[in-house]
Amino acid sequence: MSFPKNFYWGGATAANQCEGAYNVDGRGLAKTDVTTAGTATKPRGITYRLPSGETGIAPMFTPYPKDAKGVVLDEHYYPNHNAIDFYHHYKEDIALFAEMGFKIFRMSISWSRIFPNGIEDKPNQKGIEFYRNIFKELKKYNIEPLVTISHYDTPLYLEEELGGWKNRQLISLFDRYTEVLFNEFKGLVKYWLTFNEINSLLMFKDFMPNMSSEDIAKNYQSLHNQLVASARAVKRAHSIDPQYQVGCMMAGACSYPLTCNPADVLRNQKKMQDNFYYCGDVMVRGEYPVFAKRLWEEDNVKLECTEEDIKNLKEGKVDFFTFSYYSTTCTSADESIAKDGLGNFSLGSKNPYIEYSEWGWGMDPIGLRYYLNEIYNRYEIPVMVVENGLGAIDELTEDKKVHDPYRVEYLREHIKAMEGALEDGVDLIAYTPWGCIDLISASTGEMKKRYGFIYVDLDNEGNGTMKRYKKDSFDWYKKVIATNGADLD
Ligand code: BG6
Question: Looking at the structure, do residues 44 and 187 belong to the same domain, yes or no?
């Protein structure tokens, strides 16, 4: 058994983590532009100014003071401002992706490049032009774009002046944004994803155990508004171009019971429902699952959900299912057991049977086969793994080589797991490992947490030539693609 003939091998990026050019050609600000760098143990900071003129910095994910506005301050370094300058290097980078044999490239559109504040009547033509050029460049090499419409970069204006996604007005602003994209890029794009890791809004409850009940309720409402906006986008895409395929994108929140104690098993079942299936069910089946009621009661949430919303959700079911997969965690009903197992937006107990990366994320290739089966047997629509990879410290040797056997090992085992899932009958159609070219880490803002097949000469403080170098994994992945996954050595 091997990968299907037309399997989409590729790689994935996101605008704010690679484009740079944060204030070029009319682009407006996003939260990431006022976010400093952190480390595995020190959170990134958001810099702000109060009406009094006083400035400050608040840890990422905690609300900054009321009335404060996010600002860029001279004394700080903001890694996303220049990132790896994909804005000016895209031709060179796409040529390297083509050399590896990519069939698909996942990227995102920066909303504030198209509508700088999110509220303008007319889109920014220079932003549209930039993405059209990228799509044309990809077409030259027969690389299919897979485009995320919103990847953690809502225009800052919308967050600050309108209160972000908890405000229903964003639904209609997103309508306008997606209408522009679907019309402008007709014939150039086939596959779209609406919101990156949409379920992360609920995963925050585990990830940030001290969240206030007010913030939790706010997240439920923001998520509901995004789910409605997403469903409306699916319907709109199909009406603009019946060729369009629109998928959901979820953070792969896979967890296991820590023991076979039935209390742990039940607790874990709930965790999977709350963190993953809550969103998946709405997006694939078009309505909230039965357990949503239990969840709203537990969290004392009164969701504002209109008849029209219910209709929208029903009419905007996604065509395919995608998710990121980095790690798994374990769940215990015993609150005294340490939550020391980290992962992507997840917190759980450590699993003694798996290994952990330098950033403490659990590595679990077998879990990917398990999870693919769970997802496909529940939803029965085509599946893509659109993020996966190992964030590691790489060394550029004097002769400009990067020897990264650890990355090859990680990816190889995950590809084997996907092969297993194909044997199980899962309709897996694409694999786009994360950060196919090194880029800025979303959680820490570091450059040294690298995922790529292509090394970018840039350090944590923004020093470097931005030159691109092929790592050993580049040649390995090229061979994997050329043999359609048959040669993984
Ligand atoms: C996912 C995001 O959460 O994980 C990406 O969709 C992110 O944007 C990726 O970069 C890896 O996380 P990190 O923190 O290592 O960059």
Answer: no
